[in-house]
Amino acid sequence: MRIWSVHPRFLDGKGLVAGWREALLAQAVLAGRTRGYIRHPQLVRFRAQDDPIGAIGAYLVGLADEADARDYRFDRTRIDRPSARDASMAVTDGQLWYEWAHLQAKLAARSPEVATRWRDAAPVPHPVFHIVPGPVEGWERPNPASA
Question: For residue 72, what are the CA distances in angstroms to 6, 20, 30, 38, 112?
Answer without folding.
Answer: 19, 11, 26, 29, 21
